């Protein structure tokens, strides 16, 4: 995946999102959160969202890319992360917990 064309808007959105999360993290608490995992979860929510909710999530995770571009980008990114390289395999674990 190169950083050209539409990919740049995703990289910018991911960076902005991650820095914004860090900025809002409590300074007096230890918290570990992966911005990319949150974006993957938001991508799943975006797929089922409508109207204003969908629009707001699109702006946040992709700077207003199309639904198909979002799906293609994050599917490709997920595959690249989990694909074994030099014997090293990565896994992505995400979950929602509701009370």
TrEMBL record:
Domain annotation Serpin: ranges: 14-98
InterPro entries named in the record: Serpin_dom, Serpin_sf, Serpin_sf_1
This protein's name: Serpin domain-containing protein
Native source organism of the sequence: Oesophagostomum dentatum (Nodular worm)
């Amino acid at each position: 995946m190169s950083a050209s064309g539409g990919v740049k808007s995703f990289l910018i959105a991911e960076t902005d999102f991650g820095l914004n999360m860090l900025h809002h993290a409590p300074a007096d608490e230890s918290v570990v959160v992966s911005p990319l995992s949150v974006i993957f979860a938001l991508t799943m929510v975006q797929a089922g969202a409508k109207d204003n909710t969908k629009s707001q999530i699109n702006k946040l995770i992709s700077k207003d890319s199309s639904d198909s571009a979002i799906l293609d980008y994050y599917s490709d990114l997920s595959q690249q992360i989990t694909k074994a390289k030099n014997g090293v395999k990565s896994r992505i674990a995400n979950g929602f917990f509701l009370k």
